[in-house]
Specification:
Blueprint (H helix, E strand, L loop, with lengths): L2 H29 L3 H27 L2 H31 L13 H30 L3 H4 L1
Helix pairs in contact: 1-2, 2-3
């Protein structure tokens, strides 16, 4: 049995496993009921499926330049997918697309309320500063009379 035959068989196995995981991710995105479940289905099996397909491609091509490029694609995917999922989750939470009854632990509510309070304080201070500046210029209620 030669190395090329072993590499081709491994490439076929990795390709089929990766294709199955990518297919499962697509089915999960369509079938799951809420945002967080869909987000999980869109990121976890899809990334692993892509990595398996790229490993299969690297085994089939057998070129160091192609393998180097595929490694860069894997690194980029591993860096961007968690960040994108995190941002989608936060945006969904802020817009009310996340069902609170399904959450086991909700750490974001306290953070969101604190951020809202800080924003309200900053807005009030900005309005007061604008009012003081208008009063100092003579456009305030004391001079209008």
């Amino acid at each position: 049995m030669s190395w090329t035959l072993v590499a081709d068989v491994l490439a076929a196995i990795f390709l089929l496993c990766g294709a199955f995981l990518a297919f499962a991710a697509g089915v999960g995105v369509v079938r799951f009921p809420d945002l967080l479940a869909r987000m999980h289905a869109a990121t976890k099996p899809q990334v692993l499926g892509l990595i398996l397909v790229l490993i299969a491609l690297g085994l089939r091509l057998r070129s160091w330049s192609a393998v180097g490029m595929l490694v860069l694609v894997v690194i980029f995917q591993l860096m961007t997918s968690p960040v994108a999922a995190h941002m989608v989750g936060r945006a969904g939470y802020r817009t009310g697309k996340v069902r609170p009854d399904l959450l086991v632990l909700d750490d974001l509510t306290a953070d969101q309320e604190a951020a809202d309070r800080e924003k309200d304080v900053a807005d009030r201070e900005k309005d007061e500063a604008a009012t003081r500046a208008a009063d100092a210029e003579g456009d305030g209620p004391a001079r209008r009379g």
